[in-house]
UniProtKB/TrEMBL annotation:
Lineage: Bacteria, Bacillati, Bacillota, Clostridia, Eubacteriales
Annotated keywords: Membrane, Transmembrane, Transmembrane helix
Organism whose genome encodes this protein: Oxobacter pfennigii
InterPro entries per UniProt: LexA/Signal_pep-like_sf
Protein name: Signal peptidase I
Entry's transmembrane regions: 27-44, 64-87, 118-143, 155-177, 184-206, 226-244, 296-319, 426-454
Superkingdom of origin organism: Bacteria
Length: 466
């Protein structure tokens, strides 16, 4: 029995991992968020000399800003995952299961129960987020970076706004979504929607600017981005929807969510008052077909994902095993991870460069970048002069304090094995990551686990979706 004086405490207990959760588990989860964000920051530091340093410098800097910036995004992602897993405990799905019906009939005020649910979830979200925020600061202290307090309140508010928005937004929709599986889809797509909204409204250029974030008012400057005002409107609208919709739904008994445990061949019908006809409860055969289609889609996705990871592992092994005289060739293309800055900006350090494999009959031209073998060593340089069977080559980028032209050499045409055809900086970064200890474990362990346990994973997800 839920007594009037303990309803808020009951909701607060259930706000994280159901009935068994207490403050200790919330603190552990918060510290876990801090540690995993810190670990991710360390992992990214192994990719300093890659495309990430150019595209997302805000997460690669040796500063508190980078660790906190990573934390607010990890916190948003893992909380969304948590909402998906424990949707049944956290949101208003219990109203659709008639859990509030008797309480309302006994005189409990639906509005006070609604706000108890609000405050319980938000209090847990704020508590966990705040403890995690403090833990990542404490962990970063050990790195002895310059402590700049100015941008910390801005980052704190930015991350907390995202969590409150997805929490309240999901609460409102939980009053309309009939099945758990659809609700989980919605949480996922709402998280994606928030990220897209921040991108479209120009919020990320403000959020990732360490100088701008030192002034908290820049977050609310509509000339820079209108995301926060839009988020505030969405939160207020969601709260109003919750109060109105939940108060009305809680007063009525919903037969569609009632499990009678009848035999498998039994069908339940109800009368649609609007259409004035009898309908099959639960959608019947259509619902079964949708579930089978979903199971097939999940199975196909897992198979494709496993095959992709296994193929990438083979690709990495072949590239790492490549030696002069036995270069890897895929459909006439030689992939080569460039480990030098001598050809910048045409080819950057750690780029995956592609070279078209050629024979001795291929006509090379002055200005082309070639890959050639000399004294059993692989070189990549540009042709600057051509004289019959001899090619004069040089690098594009000389190190500081070096004499220009010092690296010019003459190469026999027969030594050329390929001509530069393009590059991919992201694949280069991915290969760089795959060669780290964590990368090797991820790309080898994950497909192995999925390969042997994908059926159990599908069965578990089906049970959680019922």
């Amino acid at each position: 029995m839920i007594y009037r004086s303990s309803y808020f405490k009951k909701e607060l207990r259930q706000a994280y991992t159901g009935n068994k959760t207490g403050n200790n588990r919330k603190i552990i989860f918060a510290i876990f968020l801090g540690f995993i964000s810190f670990a991710l920051y360390f992992l990214l530091q192994t990719l300093q000399e890659s495309v990430l340093s150019d595209v997302v410098p805000e997460i690669m800097q040796p500063s508190f800003f980078s660790t906190l910036y990573i934390y607010i995004h990890i916190s948003f992602f893992l909380n969304a995952v948590y909402f998906i897993v424990y949707y049944d405990y956290l949101f208003f799905s219990e109203i659709r299961k008639n859990s509030w019906y008797l309480l309302v009939q006994m005189g409990y005020n639906p509005v006070s129960m609604i706000f108890s649910k609000f405050f319980a979830l938000l209090l847990s979200v704020v508590l966990i987020y705040t403890i995690g925020f403090m833990s990542i600061i404490l962990l970063t202290v050990f790195l002895k970076y310059s402590f700049i307090l100015a941008y910390m309140p801005s980052l704190y508010i930015a991350g907390l706004t995202d969590l409150i928005l997805i929490s309240i937004f999901t609460m409102a929709v939980s009053l309309y979504v009939k099945t758990i599986i659809n609700a989980r889809y919605f949480i996922f797509f709402s998280a994606v929607f928030i990220i897209v909204l921040k991108t479209v409204l120009g919020y990320y250029p403000v959020l990732s600017n360490r100088v701008a974030m030192q002034n908290i008012y820049n977050l609310f400057d509509i000339s820079r981005s209108v995301f926060l005002p839009v988020a505030a409107v969405m939160i207020i609208a969601s709260v109003l929807v919750c109060v109105i919709r939940a108060r009305n739904v809680a007063k009525y008994y919903n037969i569609l969510d009632y499990d009678l445990n009848l035999p498998a061949d039994t069908e339940i019908v109800y009368k649609d008052k609007r259409a004035k006809k009898w309908r099959l409860a639960g959608g019947g055969e259509k619902s079964l077909k949708q579930r089978k289609a979903f199971d097939t889609a999940v199975t196909v996705f897992l198979i494709v994902f496993i095959c992709t990871l296994l193929f990438f592992n083979v690709f990495i092994i072949l590239i790492n095993a490549s030696t002069p005289g036995s270069e890897v060739t895929i459909r006439g293309v030689i992939p080569f991870v460039f480990k030098s800055d001598t050809m910048e900006p045409e080819i950057m350090l750690n780029d995956l460069a592609y070279f078209k494999k050629i024979d001795t009959q291929y006509e090379v031209s002055v200005g082309e970048i070639i890959i050639f073998k000399q004294n059993n060593v692989i070189y990549v340089e540009r042709i600057i002069e051509k004289n019959e069977n001899n090619l004069k080559v040089d690098i594009d980028n000389y190190p500081p304090m070096s004499q220009a032209g010092a690296m010019i050499k003459t190469v026999l045409r027969e030594a050329v094995i390929g001509v530069f055809a393009g590059r991919n900086r992201w694949l280069g970064a991915l290969i760089l990551f795959a060669n780290t200890i964590f990368g090797r474990l991820l790309f080898l362990l994950v497909p192995t686990i999925l390969l042997f346990y994908y059926k159990q994973i599908i069965d578990f997800y089906q049970r959680r979706s019922r």
